[in-house]
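ok, trying the design again with the full structure, not the truncated one.
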């Protein structure tokens, strides 16, 4: 089964994707993670996108579609893909449709994580992740364990993203409304869209998504 998790920055896409990976043998494809990896390892493409990402602008369609195409070609034997943070434009959406069509395993569901804008500042400003395994934490709603060790892998190297500040978030939200939110109509018209309440507890959101996937 192939699914898209769709929602603004901080909606909980990464958190939910990780849960699906653990419970359903699915593969998470996060273009944000791929771009950060490229940036951290200092590849030519990584250097090219660093400033764009710091501002919270979208990277070009060409770059992210290329990243996804490579991953789809290289990944085999799994319970399906979770697209997290991709597609973000209509051009990316149509490219994904074509790429998946070619694999013979088209998209099954697009899940919209519905949240209020006011919640996002708090979500983003409290976010940290484990530098080793990528587990996502939140200062208030999912604090790092008191012993300072990641609950998933035991490492004690937590990171905060440089773009998780209010100014960049405002710009990311603007990009979301201008370029990504039209995808809601696009997938609704394709009869693929289901909205779940992204403001509920992490566990409740997991249950709502499970219901959609198992229906
Ligand atoms: P968030 O968790 O806040 O939704 P991501 O980790 O998905 O953010 O993305 C971080 C940044 O990487 C974005 O602000 C953007 O610059 C870039 N990026 C990630 N995915 C895409 C995409 N599909 N298209 C264009 N830019 C992207
Ligand atoms: P996205 O990938 O959509 O940008 P994340 O999964 O990184 O979002 O979540 C953003 C922040 O909000 C993280 O700190 C995460 O721990 C927290 N979070 C995610 N889902 C929920 C939820 N349902 N309730 C409260 N906090 C949440
Ligand atoms: Zn960890």
């Amino acid at each position: 089964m192939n699914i898209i998790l769709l929602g603004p920055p901080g909606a909980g896409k990464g958190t939910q994707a990780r849960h699906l990976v653990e419970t359903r043998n699915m593969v998470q494809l996060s273009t944000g993670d791929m771009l950060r990896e490229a940036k951290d390892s200092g590849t030519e493409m990584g250097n090219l996108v660093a400033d764009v990402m710091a501002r919270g602008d979208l990277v070009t369609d060409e770059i992210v579609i290329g990243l996804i195409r490579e991953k789809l070609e290289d990944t085999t034997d799994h319970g399906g893909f979770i697209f997290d943070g991709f597609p973000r434009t209509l051009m990316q959406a149509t490219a994904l449709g074509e790429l998946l069509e070619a694999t013979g395993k088209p998209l099954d569901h697009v899940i919209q994580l519905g949240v209020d804008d006011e919640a996002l500042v708090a979500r983003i400003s409290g976010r940290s992740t484990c530098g080793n395994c990528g587990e996502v934490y939140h200062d208030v709603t999912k604090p790092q364990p008191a012993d300072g060790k990641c609950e998933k892998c035991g490492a004690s190297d937590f990171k905060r993203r440089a773009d998780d500040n209010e100014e960049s978030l405002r710009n990311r939200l603007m990009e979301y409304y201008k370029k990504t939110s039209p995808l809601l109509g696009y997938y609704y018209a394709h009869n693929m869209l289901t909205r779940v309440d992204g403001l509920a507890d992490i566990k409740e959101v997991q249950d709502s998504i499970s219901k959609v996937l198992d229906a």
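Keeping the full-length input from now on. The mean pLDDT is 96.
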